[in-house]
């Protein structure tokens, strides 16, 4: 008895900022590659189908992308990553006043310390 079949694999290649064709929002899109492989006794042997897709993170719609365009988008993503993409790597764009900025709690609107509460009087019981 011979057991054969197929198995699909999804690889996320890049995250790009594009204007969605469905909702019209400039949002992050994931560039994904779907590879279908022939299996024999549950061992993947060779790919028989490769397709590229982008998925909008705002509305969730997927668009099929030709292989040539997927390679161009991947190259575009690599050049943006080398140039820094307008931000420093590791920088948090939401951290306002991370050096203190005169605000209690270092400028973090979600911190509970530094608001006039003493330890053990409300606030976060795990914060010392």
UniProtKB/TrEMBL annotation:
It comes from the Bacteria. Residues 71-128 are annotated as: Disordered. InterPro entries: Zinc_ribbon_15 (IPR031493). It holds the Pfam family Zn_ribbon_15. Residues 98-128 have a biased composition (Gly residues). Coiled coil: none annotated. Residues 19-61 form the Zinc-ribbon domain. Residues 71-82 have a biased composition (Low complexity). PANTHER family: UPF0768 PROTEIN YBL029C-A. This is Zinc-ribbon 15 domain-containing protein. The lineage of its organism: Bacteria, Bacillati, Actinomycetota, Actinomycetes, Kitasatosporales.
